[in-house]
Amino acid sequence: MSLPEVDFYRIDTLLSDEEKMIRQSVRTFVDERIRPIIGRCFEESRFPKEIIPELASLGVFGANLPEKYGCAGVSNVAYGLITQELEAGDSGIRSFASVQGALCMYPIYAFGTEEQRQRWLPRMAAGEVIGCFGLTEPNSGSDPGSMRTTARKVDGGWLLNGNKAWITNGAIADIAIVWAKTDDGTIRGFLVEKGTPGFTAPEVHHKLSLRASVTSELFFQDCLLPEENLLAGTKGLKSPLMCLPQARYGIAWGGVGAARDCYQTALEYAKQRVQFDRPIAAFQLTQEKLARMITEITKAQLLALQLGRLKDAGLMDPVHVSMGKMNNVEM
Asked: Is the dihedral of CA 137, 140, 142, 143 positive or negative?
């Protein structure tokens, strides 16, 4: 690809050599390992679990978390570039990595004890333990404060009851980060391990989108959790809402990757498709469509990059993430 087709405003000049190297390593992986199989995965509605160890070896899981927990410890811009490249391959692949890192590893890092961090994060970074994030419920989507899942304090721990819906990675997860209301109405986070009696995670089938991603429901019927499975630092709705910007940040970058891939596909087709003895790319009507596409993509690239720089500088606010995600996903 020539420069104007993928980087019209020369945004690469604003990236460090390390950021470009990380981006290229993930892009190469997507080209070599994702693109050849993703069409078949879509048709079969199958997540390619065989790539998990390879993704782990690239360091994409919790990439912006500290190295002391087995993570890559890269900048937030570099992490954004990772999600961008993964989503250029498939939204379901990016979603898998985002949930693993931003919605499962992050809350353990932010709210867990040091023992919990040492127990779970290195294995999750290595892809040996897969996680999911249980917040949304059938009747509590955009209003998570109205959740009905409960955690009642009992001798020896907590008794969990309720269900969660539209949970990415649920059926293949080894551990679930589950949010529930305690007896006093306070929302707390819990670690629910696969195989816990009363815990089931059936997969949702017959999807029309994100077909190469695992989507599940989570059911809890008198699940007895030991006290050490409580994320002690969680207290109130603020805790799960602190996790969401971490994932939405990656989605803002991911939208750029998906759009860029659509643009490149459309451009190559327009060059090859001949009508009236000319490629359709030679017609002004087609050129106008492509020009608008690259313009919107360029604006989204700049928005994502500045969002990442703000996050690295500790200046990012959740409303910044909201704008980035809103604009880039709509684009």
From this structure: negative
Q: What is the pLDDT of residues 239-252, one digit of tens each?
A: 999 999 999 999 99
* Per-residue pLDDT at 4 exceeds 90: no
The tens digit of pLDDT for each residue in 146-155 reads 999 999 999 9
How big is the CA angle at 62 (ends 23 and 11), to the nearest 5 degrees? 25
Nearest by Cα to 151 from 100, 191, 197, 102:
191
Q: Percentage of the chain with pLDDT > 70?
A: 98
Q: Which of 105, 73, 100, 30 lies closest to 261, judged by CA?
A: 30
Q: What SS3 string covers the chain?
A: CCHHHHCCCCHHHHCCHHHHHHHHHHHHHHHHHHHHHHHHHHHHCCCCHHHHHHHHHHCCCCCCCCHHHCCCCCCHHHHHHHHHHHHHHCHHHHHHHHHHHHHHHHHHHHHCCHHHHHHHHHHHHCCCCCEEEECCECCECCCHHHCCCEEEEECCEEEEEEEEEEEECHHHCCEEEEEEECCCCCEEEEEEECCCCCEECCECCCCCCCCCCCEEEEEEEEEEEEHHHEECCCCCCHHHHHHHHHHHHHHHHHHHHHHHHHHHHHHHHHHHCEECCEEHHHCHHHHHHHHHHHHHHHHHHHHHHHHHHHHHCCCCCHHHHHHHHHHHHHC
